[in-house]
Every structure is written in structure tokens, then in C-alpha cells.
Amino acid sequence: MLCLSCIRICPMGVYENKEGLISPVNVNNCINCHACEVACPVDAITLKN
Predict the structure, then answer these.
(1) Which of 6, 13, 15, 48 is the most exposed place for a label (fewest CB within 10 A)?
(2) Model confidence over 19-38: pLDDT tens digits?
(3) What pLDDT was estimated at residue 16?
(4) C-beta of residue 37 within 8 angstroms of C-beta of residue 30
(5) Which of 41, 40, 4, 35 lies closest to 22 in space, CA to CA?
(6) What pLDDT score was predicted for residue 48?
(7) Cα gap 37→32, rounded to integer Å
(8) Domains of the chain, with CATH numbers?
């Protein structure tokens, strides 16, 4: 089951739920705020600086 925390918390709309998978579809919008990384309860997201 997906928690969708990254989708809800991202201020730039980087992530979308596509067919049950969370995908970073708007990566150029990312401002490296790391909100998605902090919000993920299973540490599935790691941003590169």
C-alpha cells in the first residue's frame, strides 16, 4: 500500500501516482527542499545534491 506522503508534501508537484506506482514525473520542478525525503516513512527517496 502506498502512503502518498511524497505526493502530498511536495510543493512543486514532482511526483504522481501512475497505475499504483509513485513516479517523479516533473523532476525539473524539484527545488531540492528534501520534504519528500523527510516525509517518506520507508526511506524510499534519496535526493542527490
Answers:
(1) 48
(2) 989 999 999 999 999 999 99
(3) 96
(4) no
(5) 4
(6) 85
(7) 10
(8) 5-39 (3.30.70.20)
Contacts of 48 (CB under 8 A, 6+ apart): none
CB 27 within 8 A of CB 18: no
Residue given cell 525539473 in the structure block: 28
Coil vs helix vs strand at 17: strand
pTM of the model: 0.84
Rounded distance between C-alpha atoms, residue 34 and residue 44, angstroms: 12
Intra-chain end-to-end CA distance of the chain, in Å:
29
- CB distance 6 to 21 below 8 Å: no
How far apart CA 15 and CA 12 sit, in angstroms, is 9
